[in-house]
Amino acid sequence: xxxxxxxxxxxxxxxxxxxxxxxxxxxxxxxxxxxxxxxxxxxxxxxxxxxxxxxxxxxxxxxxxxxxxxxxxxxxxxxxxxxxxxxxxxxxxxxxxxxxxxxxxxxxxxxxxxxxxxxxxxxxxxxxxxxxxxxxxxxxxxxxxxxxxxxxxxxxxxxxxxxxxxxxxxxxxxxxxxxxxxxxxxxxxxxxx
Length: 193
What we know:
The protein is of the alpha+beta class and 193 residues long. It is built from five helices and 13 strands.
């Protein structure tokens, strides 16, 4: 791990990591190697402290995916596959399917905390939201979302790419995406998120 404040501050300051199984945003590291952090997904979260050597810190990569936003939309969030100096998720090493959205506006939110925890609305609820035009797009898992295009067609997206459509109660996959059928069926049956 890190044995001095400078290295620790450079590597984890501003990052989203897991602490005792919960997503947190690291504020800073003191000279005594005390980490100041706040929990994501909590309204007005208190600023908390823990020692850098606490075994509750989990430095493994966090799973990203579709994030449902306020206002009835969603974006696909992914870590950029390049070697960087930040240990956790940070606006410098994350991108979204919507380049106009600043990643810091997303990864530090309650909505993104739900992604980390794997909490998504049921497929049927997403179909109703998008079908009733209460949401332009909505995710039902880390990897899948439904959206409505300008012609009113409900499109199925997988990891930021349109791969099929939803019509008359059925998902139709485009050519070359048949391998997703079993995965989608398990999600619809509630077996995986």
